[in-house]
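The aim of this short unit is practical: by the end, you should be able to scan a pair of folded records and say something sensible about each. We start with the first protein, listed as its amino acid sequence and then its structure tokens.
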Amino acid sequence: MNKPVRDVGAAHVRDDVLWFLDTTFAAWNWAHKSMLDAVKNLSVPEAVWQPSRHAHPVWEQIHHVAHWKAYVVERIRGRRTRAHQAWPRAGRTAGDLHRSIARLAHLHHDLRVALLDMDPEAFARAKIGRYALVRLLLGAAAHESYHAGQILLTRKLYRDFRRPAVRGRRSETIR
């Protein structure tokens, strides 16, 4: 992945946004781990574990991120699509999980291709609905980053939940 360029020309704006999208999806940057880091070595039991009835399992979060990434790609390609909250259900097998994660990678590739196909000047001026394209993309990256953090936290809770309690550990004592 290329590092962001500091010049403010239209091509550089596009390059900087692409760098941010890439690091949010597939590489560590200064602020957080990537989505691929968050789902690395994910098992089916971890992916379907639900910490509470009000929290989404990791697998549903993966599908949710994929839904919104697909939405952004479709909008960039000029297709009208309905925006609605989507929390598709988790699959059941390791193969299903692998396909869900692979879909994220495929959608990220599609997003890059759609952006690189745009003229840099058009990219800098483009609007998608009521949002400037750059704002929509930065929002999408922030959304993906948020869910990567949620996935990492849910996986940590899963590991802590599965670990046998040790008497006298501070986390067991509420004062």
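Turning to the second protein, read its sequence before its tokens, just as you did above.
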Amino acid sequence: MSSPASVARHPIHPMLVVFPIGLWTFSLVCDIIYVFGGREPMWNTVALYTAVGGIIGAAVAAVPGIIDYLSIEDKEVRAIGTRHMMVNLGALLVFIVASIARAKGVSAMMPFLLSIAGIVLISFGGWLGGELVYVKGMAVQPVEELAAEQERQSRRDRARLRRVV
């Protein structure tokens, strides 16, 4: 089951999800420093910018994710894909609300708690994504198919070598 949203047979969605994951995680780190480290305003500002960057990154990563999702035919795999999408959309909404609250100057504790909730959600969403790839084989080329392709390439290479020699 290969990914229709891929470049050179490499699925795009997993390449892009690292950005919102990293940005949102760093946003939580900034929240922790802000809340427990003396409330230096810079950390609240950095938390806002990294959260917004994560929101943008998540929207971008969702495009190939949706393309892949629409290609799923197996009902069990599609159900896992649906849960993966819904959990991650929930995380996206949580970070949007946290960013709005932070931008409006709401008490630091609310964005902090929302960031924790968002990280919990993306962790579960990531686990579901792992289930899709590592257990169900979504966007993974079967080993037999890959071995056959490599054998064909090896034969072509040997034939080219014979012509050269």
